[in-house]
Amino acid sequence: MSPFTPVPTESIAHAGEIALVRRLLVALGAAAPAAPEGPGDDCAVLAENPAPGRRLVTTDSVIWGRHFDASVSPEDAGRKLVNRNVSDIAAMGGDPTDAVLALLMGPDVSAAWLEKFMIGVGQACLSQGVKLAGGDLAKMPAGTFAASLSLTGFAEKPMLRTGGRAGDFVYVTGSLGGSILGKHFAFTPRVPEGRFFAAHPAVRAGMDLTDGLGKDLPVLLPPRTAALVDTAALPLSADCLAVATKSGLTAVHHALNDGEDYELLLIVDPAGADGMESDFAKRFPEVRLTRVGRIVPAATGLDQGALYDETGEPLAERGFDHFATDSTGN
Amino acid sequence: MSPFTPVPTESIAHAGEIALVRRLLVALGAAAPAAPEGPGDDCAVLAENPAPGRRLVTTDSVIWGRHFDASVSPEDAGRKLVNRNVSDIAAMGGDPTDAVLALLMGPDVSAAWLEKFMIGVGQACLSQGVKLAGGDLAKMPAGTFAASLSLTGFAEKPMLRTGGRAGDFVYVTGSLGGSILGKHFAFTPRVPEGRFFAAHPAVRAGMDLTDGLGKDLPVLLPPRTAALVDTAALPLSADCLAVATKSGLTAVHHALNDGEDYELLLIVDPAGADGMESDFAKRFPEVRLTRVGRIVPAATGLDQGALYDETGEPLAERGFDHFATDSTGN
Fold first, then answer.
1. Contact check, Cβ <8 Å, A101/B153
2. Minimal-distance CA residue of chain A relative to B60
């Protein structure tokens, strides 16, 4: 379903700003509290600290033609906007609390399409405990649609990307690759798992997998280290295998490079790794957790910041560069 | 200066994401702290409460072709993005503390232009005490550029839009109209003034003037009231008079409808108004504060939510509708 309408009377330009905002607030339902806690004043007014801990902030966008197309329902696009932000809060071990939404839209965006998008935003907010505290509408050229969400959360002891050491083990939750077949719109952010990892003494660092293990794991490597990836152990999703069958590339290639897994990537102290695994299995019996490699000192044939397979061959494939002209997008 | 370059090697697509982010962080300078307080992790990690009071959040955008064009320097566009958000915090009587920035850009955006834009963002952040805690880059169609900022602040006793009563006086800071000639890029958000009004017992409600007094004042009117505007008292800026000379419309028309004044609009208890005026004059001797009208009960010939001049003639001009197809933009 395209966001745009050729019928002027169905467009947001025709709806008028005040009536449109009213309609969008109805679509959001209970996700948008009344002012001043919600939309309607110059700012939203929130409790200082609705959850214990340090305050976390993140922002992420969805763009028509980039993150979704006409094959995607507006509700799914709206849910994705919320969930990809929530995944960033999950990656710090936090609880998401409240968000503001910037809509940047051509005048030819369909009011009915936008209403459905907001229904998806509202549903995801409600299911993640997020209040939509405020927003802004701004006009862009015809034929364009973008939405940016900024999300706040709180974490008692945030899990950072820094903290890994040579010798540490690398873990991932769930399975990797092939998210293009559906998971990139249908994932559930790993909020409770993130809280578990942030609180566990054996977990030294972590992040969420958005650009693919091949690009994201190097981010967690401390200086003068590389990583050995046990490619045989990579938890390949069924969709990863399906994509590989069609692409002619290996499933391992897809698991390393597909992006948008929205799983958690963890760096774990080897001394506590077995205990962490069993603690995790007790708490999350249905969630896969796989040791996929380890951090090693950089050395001859092991370049700093690079990934290698178990035989020492470089895993040359790189993750997703958001601005590269030759990128295939995600 | 246009954000776009016809020379591929000068574009952000050519720069590569990691190098580009590094360059933008250099441009931001001290405005962007190191991770985890600043950019570099999944979320920024902030103090729960860097200033006393309730937490305020707001979001606002600047869009190429909408809020600025090639006649505007990239530094001014970046400063405007920050300052229009800070004005929303000022309108609640708050202190701005930290922000996240979403950049939505065509691959043909010039890296040098973007660097200058970020220098402007950084300068405005530093001058307003705002830390740029994080951000996101996302790719849009060629020829487009948008930036959304989400800003957090804190206020001990936020000034809301609600609270006005029939009989209350209406005040504005500074002068109105003609901001298109320069003020809409060169304004200083009224942060200390906002704090003064939020703390003053005679001030019942307030907001910042972004869409023009004619559209903004009705927002502050309680149900079953209208407002009488003393059009002879309106503080007309020199630029308002200059614009009126060219447009052939009255200066009052421009003062009511131009938008982007970024002044504060206040609703004040008449019993405390004189005291508030003298308190304000002591604290801000160089800032104009003008009583421009009063709230009256709706009645025959005085429609609820509408504005009238001192003779009871309706001030039919309306402020700025962001999506109206016939709008001239601001």
1. no
2. A136
